[in-house]
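User: Sequence in, structure out. Go.
Assistant: Echoing your sequence, followed by the structure tokens.
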Amino acid sequence: MGGGGAAVGRLDMAAERSGPEEAAAGGEDGPSVQATPGRAEVFATVVDTFLEKLVAAGSYQKFANCYRCFYKLQPEVTRSIYDQFISQLQTSIKDEIQEVKNEGNLELLFNSLDKMVEEAKNQEEPAWRPSGIPEEDIRSAMVPYLLKHRSYLRKIVKEKEEENRKAAESVIAGRDRIGELQQLIQARKHAWQAISKEQRELIMTFKEPQ
């Protein structure tokens, strides 16, 4: 946590030092806008600062004091071992931090937070603040959501009712069509029966004795 504060402090100091230079470079065009470092950049700076403090805390002198006998016998080898240890330690820490960033998708989250902050700067309405009364705070937070959800449910119900109405009309139309087909079949049946009756009567006339 201390490393993060120091990193942010160094970024602010660097920004203050670069301010006059950027203004001078702007010339007649006016003062240039100071770029605010993004959260991803701050996070990277915090990691670098942490590694620097880690190396400073585990200095070569402290390492040599821990292995004093070996250092007196092989000072160059001791230095080489220390350098390899520090290098591998830094690489291991960076790899683990990068793995955490990838698993948590931190890069995208940092960019999203930066975007939200920039969008919030253009909002004219004041940001929400708790009133100190939990009931009112919960009500003010939940009521808009519940109203929005109720509107959504009403919309869904209306769409379902419209679908049911169309389905009912289709069923009624189908029943009417079936009734018409039944009447048509019945009419054709009667017509065939009448034709058959006439044919039978005609055949009977030919069979009558002369």
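User: And one key feature?
Assistant: The two ends are 129 Å apart (CA to CA).
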